[in-house]
Amino acid sequence: MSYVRRAAGGAIAALLAATALAGCGTSASSDDGAKGSGPWSFVSGNGKTVKLDQTPKRIIASGAEAAALISFGIKPVGIYASTTIKDDPNLKGLDLSGITILGETWGEIDVEKAAALKPDLIVADWWPAEKAYSGLESGVKASSKKLADLAPIVGVAQGDSIEALAQGYEKLAASLGADVDDPKIAADKKAFETAKAAFKKAVAAKPGLSVLAVSPSDDVLYVANPKYAPELLDFQRWGLDVINPDKPDKGFPYWENLSWENADKYQPDLLLIDDRAYASTLKQGEKQPTWNNIKAANAKAYAPWPAYWMHTYGEYAEQLTQLTAAITKADDTRA
Length: 335
Fold this sequence. Notes:
The protein is of the alpha/beta class. The chain has helices at residues 63-71, 111-116, 142-145, 162-175, 183-204, 230-237, 278-286, 295-298, 313-329; strands at residues 40-43, 49-52, 59-62, 78-81, 100-104, 121-123, 126-127, 132-133, 153-154, 210-216, 220-224, 241-242, 255-259, 270-274, 302-305. The strands form 4 sheets. Strands 10, 11, 12, 13, 14 and 15 form a 6-stranded mixed β-sheet that branches. A 5-stranded parallel β-sheet has the order 5-4-3-6-9. Strands 1-2 form a two-stranded antiparallel sheet. The longest helix is centred in the middle third of the chain and has 22 residues, at 183-204. The protein is globular. The model is unreliable at 6-34 (pLDDT under 50).
């Protein structure tokens, strides 16, 4: 999984969990590929078609992408993550027995151990803004980037919708031989559609409600730019007024970086707090003297923001249900 760092110019910030965004590009499409036999092909997120003589079986995957494959019954031989497995929101609770862990820190992959697994495919998100796959972006150790020499890389592009991202990994799983008509997958899709309908209803009932997605740090309040956050674009598409910051960082446009002196530049009714390390991230905000200058912060109107990590229908259903409850509870009256 990639890592949307909370810093201008690509500097690495210490967040606990991982998954990035790259934004305005569209999600990758896939041909159907072969259902468990060769030859095999897939149109990756960078627009290039990867072709193999046989359907790949030995797969190394980035964390979130591995979770997506596992949800379809495809078990990678190796996983590299951007945080400890126990803290990764995608991998928590999954049966990873028999899977080799190749890294638990962003930018650090044990390529020697990966090579021993003899992979025939690497699966990782493509990030259009950075023009790189998860774990191979700018700032990653040169030794870790040698992972790309072991096998072809494919993945769905982070685009303008998590729903489309989930659909992309469903297509990839189908091409690899998964039974995407499994009743569990159907149940997850139904739960997602139900949660989406409830979300839209709650938003429609609060037409004046504004929200701001943020990730507080000791030095800076990072304000998310929905253009590069597909879940926030989904929320906007479904009627929620997610504020667009007017001066995203030019070198790393996922965020507008506000000094704490200017933390009250935007005045939302509800704050969506980066949930990759929710408790510690919120604590970083609450200890700032200017935190309560933000209307929503003063009212403790917070909700977790599933920042840059969701890849499956089931995850999305759970997060939408949680957010719907916060929207229903929020006060949308203007001071």
